[in-house]
Write a structure and sequence with these properties.
Blueprint (H helix, E strand, L loop, with lengths): L1 E5 L9 E4 L9 E10 L2 H8 L11 E2 L3 E9 L11 E4 L9 E5 L3 E3 L6 H5 L2 H14 L7 E4 L5 H12 L3 E6 L2 H9 L4 E4 L5 H8 L5 E6 L3 H7 L3 E9 L18 E4 L2 H7 L6 H10 L7 E6 L3 H10 L5 E5 L1
Parallel strand pairs: 9-10, 9-12, 10-11, 12-13, 13-14, 15-16
Antiparallel strand pairs: 1-2, 1-4, 3-5, 3-7, 3-16, 5-6, 6-8
Length: 321
């Protein structure tokens, strides 16, 4: 089969489109003929060696999430069968014509949802939901600040928070992105290139601040996000695209500051993958949206990575074989 593998860590030049052995399902595996694979910022960390994989994992096929048709199943798998349309989030293997996932990492795709849309969902919708709800206890009427609203996680988080009855403030880097985020349900949007988000959040909340911050940028954005936490507020950090996050995390009396990692959460809570079902149904029924920025053929994966790194995208970048 054709696949994109990395044999060493580095820039986009390490992405090699080449022939690779067809994967063979183990007893608990689902083998999927891939029709679309979603890209995530975590892919950039995998590629350059700052993610959770090490040199002992090389060579490897990247790709956290993918959708397609079941080609074969392992002997222990009873909940899926060949020919069934599925989406999976195993954390690797998606940049290929065929890929493996454990059966518990795999969910059926409902009729009416295309492969590209399904492939764009697992990482961002599961991260947004479990971070805000399972981890941080999002409640109806909470005031929520979602940083980097135009990112894949941001787009999902805005819609999930609104669906659950929260009041949402979000940030983005252009007026056009702010307009689109408002259309997705954000109550207030802040163009951080023209406005200081601390001042704006304090103005919008009458100086009280917000109950929950979903922070995925790091650096100065993390530091300033601490300033808008209301008494009893929770800040959850999930990324560092703009700079490091302090280690250990700072402590502020009466407020909670934590990290969240979706991989660790799902490893400890295998039933958590099933949360994706409700969001696929909502997207199918046009009660939520998946925003696909651009789609690239697998052979042009380097262009797709450049698009993701440039931070001009809105929503998800997707690969097709």
């Amino acid at each position: 089969m054709k696949a994109v593998r990395i044999h060493k860590f580095g820039g986009e030049e390490v992405l090699e489109y080449e022939d690779a052995p067809d994967p063979q399902p183990g007893r608990d595996d689902v083998l999927v003929k891939v029709e679309a694979a979603g890209l995530n910022r975590a892919d950039l960390g995998t590629r350059d060696g700052t993610g959770r994989y090490t040199e002992k994992d090389l060579p490897m096929i990247m790709g956290f999430e993918f959708a397609g048709t079941v080609a074969a199943v392992g002997s222990n798998v009873t909940d899926f069968q060949p020919g069934q349309r599925v989406v999976a989030d195993p954390g690797r293997g998606g940049y290929a014509e065929y890929a493996l996932a454990k059966h518990y990492q795999t969910r059926p795709v409902p009729d009416g949802l295309d492969a590209a849309t399904a492939a764009a969902m697992p990482a961002v919708f599961l991260t947004a939901y479990h971070c805000m709800v399972s981890h941080a206890g999002l409640k109806a009427d909470d005031r929520v600040l979602i940083q980097a609203g135009g990112s894949g996680v941001g787009v999902a988080a805005i819609q999930i928070a609104k669906h659950l009855g929260a009041r949402v403030i979000t940030t983005a880097g252009s007026d056009e992105k702010c307009r689109r985020l408002h259309d997705l349900g954000a109550d207030e949007t802040i163009n951080y290139t023209r406005q200081d988000f601390v001042q704006e959040v304090n103005r919008l909340t009458g100086g009280r601040g917000v109950d929950l911050v979903l922070e995925m940028v790091g650096g100065a954005v993390f530091d300033k996000s601490l300033e808008v936490l209301a008494p009893g507020g929770r800040l959850v950090t999930i990324g560092r695209a703009g700079g490091p996050v302090p280690e250990p995390l700072p402590t502020i009396e009466g407020r909670s500051i934590t990290r969240f990692g979706i991989t660790a959460h799902l490893t400890q809570n295998l039933e958590g993958y099933k949360a994706l079902d409700q969001f696929m149904a909502l997207v199918r029924d046009k009660r939520m949206q998946v925003c696909i920025d651009r789609t690239y053929p697998l052979a042009k994966v380097a262009e797709a990575h450049r698009r993701l790194e440039g931070r001009e995208h809105f929503g998800k970048v997707v690969l097709t074989p």
